[in-house]
Specification:
Helix content is 13%, strand content 50%. By secondary structure, the protein is mainly beta. About 5% of the residues have low confidence.
Length: 119
């Protein structure tokens, strides 16, 4: 959690240093990897929605991006839990340009944000 907050603080500092504001996207494109079969799946999500990916339920809170660069870096607040379980396996900000900074730690699946949707 501390890494996620540190990453988000870096994002805010970086956009502020460039004189840019973070804009709210309408959703995000996340990519999921099933490490067992090597298959990747793009998850097209709206803010406040959830999708099933394998044995995971992925929920997107919101996605933000630098105001002056909509195709630039994405910052998404994501929560992930396993189907049928109440505890979270991940909850925090994922950063598109630095997926390892705040990553899902799961033996079978990887999930990361690729970009925000602007429409």
């Amino acid at each position: 959690m501390k890494r996620a907050l540190a990453g988000f603080a870096l994002m805010i500092a970086g956009t502020a240093a460039l004189g840019e504001q973070a804009s709210l996207g309408t959703g995000a494109i996340l990519r999921g990897l099933d490490k067992v079969n090597g298959k990747t799946t793009d998850l097209d999500m709206g803010n406040g929605t959830s999708l099933a990916f394998g044995r995971l339920v992925v929920s997107l809170g919101e996605c933000r991006y630098p105001e002056g660069n909509p195709s630039g870096d994405a910052y998404a607040f994501v929560t992930i839990r396993e189907t049928g379980k109440s505890e979270m396996v991940f909850s925090g900000w994922m950063i598109g340009s630095s997926p390892a900074l705040s990553a899902l730690d799961h033996p079978r699946y990887d999930v990361w944000v690729t970009r925000c949707k602007t429409q």
